[in-house]
């Protein structure tokens, strides 16, 4: 009897450990693959405002998912121009339009963009003791990059809110620090 209860509790422990493992597995966002960087042809890859260009031979991790969304999702804010001729490339995926640097608009990593489901929704971005409302107009592609379509820029990380100048301005971030900032965001009702 004693032996049995020992075995039973051991079994229970194993089941518990396995269950929590499977559960955390489901919660986690793992890379979907890797792509090899190609050097941009002459004159390609707009280096405007420190945009990153793929390095020849360097491996870049890709993601189809992003960390789960909450009322204060942690993210990394980057700078992008959604204007014509800006470093964002073509018009925005959500509305096929360009957007002035003076309007607060963002692109979200592929997982958060979630197959256009957040298109033209507004999110509240909080950092630096301030908040700004910005509209989702584009995807920051975490699944592909280093090709002509992506201006020879690497795939996006999976936790990116890529924002226009107006967002940086509204957050009152000193100009020298524009380009990279830890933020939280939430989706507006
Ligand atoms: C990028 O840099 C150029 C030149 O310094 C500047 O004129 C432009 O406004 C910048 N774009 C953004 C989105 O900050
Ligand atoms: C994305 O949305 C389109 C159009 O609604 C649909 O056809 C497609 O299957 C969706 N893709 C994924 C990965 O959910
Ligand atoms: C998001 O905000 C913009 C600008 O205030 C507004 O025009 C738009 O209707 C809002 N979108 C939604 C889905 O509420």
TrEMBL record:
The keyword Protein biosynthesis does not apply. It is found in: Secreted. This is Ripening-related protein 1. InterPro entries: Kiwellin-like, RlpA-like_sf. Keywords: Secreted, Signal. Residues 1-26 form the signal peptide. It comes from the Eukaryota. One of its GO terms (cellular component) is extracellular region. Belongs to the kiwellin family. Pfam families: KWL1.
